[in-house]
Amino acid sequence: MADQTPAPSGPSSGTPMVRMTGVNKHFGDLHVLRDIDLEVARGEVVVVLGPSGSGKSTLCRAINRLEPVDGGTVEIDGTPLPAEGRDLAKLRSDVGMVFQQFNLFAHMTILDNVTLAPTRVRGKSKSEAQERARTLLDRVGIGNQSDKYPAQLSGGQQQRVAIARALAMEPKVMLFDEPTSALDPEMVGEVVEVMSGLAKDGMTMVVVTHEMGFARRTAHRVVFMADGEIVEDTTPDSFFSRPATERARDFLGKILTH
Ligand SMILES: Nc1ncnc2c1ncn2[C@@H]1O[C@H](COP(=O)(O)OP(=O)(O)O)[C@@H](O)[C@H]1O
Ligand SMILES: [Mg+2]
């Protein structure tokens, strides 16, 4: 047997998994991303914080070109994202995305939601896709729900399905945009737990979240955005105990006393 020892988690050196260089984005007169330079190493977990409207969602969407950018480059695992076409679809499928809204197909079972893209886009056989989907549903703790429909599941369970669905494409990096913000408080923990497990297994992750516990415990780095700029990029410990900017201190004051 080959050596099955898992790779240690945590950032590794070499080609960054995500590299944004000089990325700019406008919505009309509004300059939403300003000269963004951001590298995320393989196996690294980066939490993105910042006030509402600071550009966090746009940053995530720029990483897989759900949002076209006006200038600069985005590379995934060393390959620049093409502007459009088949190559874009291929590279984009290397980037898994989980949103605040789960966006599951209501008329399809949980299992079918998870196998849809692997069979349609990756060309996997149905049986192969189903086997993998069952493994992933087990991993997120809902293996016994696979024949149900989304509306029969709680919000926390639906979000875990959305994570399994993204993982089914075998992405190189996972983006999470406020994955727990639409959940009832008692369901936040189960989703955070799944994300922490992924991080421990070495997944490269960019996570926009207000879960400061996750940021402190699990992130390797915190990126703080304000007005479309990255104004701090540091370790969780230094960000939370010694924020360098007035903007970050103000932000932390608001969320931590909330
Ligand atoms: N499609 C859009 N058209 C126009 N303005 C947008 C659009 N999407 C976002 N914006 C604006 O861009 C800014 C950044 O938005 P967003 O990236 O969603 O911020 P965040 O996720 O940090 O709250 C906000 O001022 C928002 O109103
Ligand atoms: Mg947002």
Automatic annotation (TrEMBL):
InterPro entries: AAA+_ATPase (IPR003593), ABC_ATPase_HisP-typ (IPR030679), ABC_transporter-like_ATP-bd (IPR003439), ABC_transporter-like_CS (IPR017871), MetN_ABC_transporter-like (IPR050086), P-loop_NTPase (IPR027417). GO terms for molecular function: ATP binding; ATP hydrolysis activity; ATPase-coupled polar amino acid-transporter activity. The keyword Cell membrane applies. The lineage of its organism: Bacteria, Bacillati, Actinomycetota, Actinomycetes, Pseudonocardiales. Its EC number is 7.4.2.1. It comes from Actinomycetospora succinea. It comes from the Bacteria. Its main location: membrane. It catalyses: a polar amino acid(out) + ATP + H2O = a polar amino acid(in) + ADP + phosphate + H(+). This is ABC-type polar-amino-acid transporter. SUPFAM superfamilies: P-loop containing nucleoside triphosphate hydrolases. Keywords: Amino-acid transport, ATP-binding, Cell membrane, Membrane, Nucleotide-binding, Transport. One of its GO terms (cellular component) is plasma membrane. Belongs to the ABC transporter superfamily.
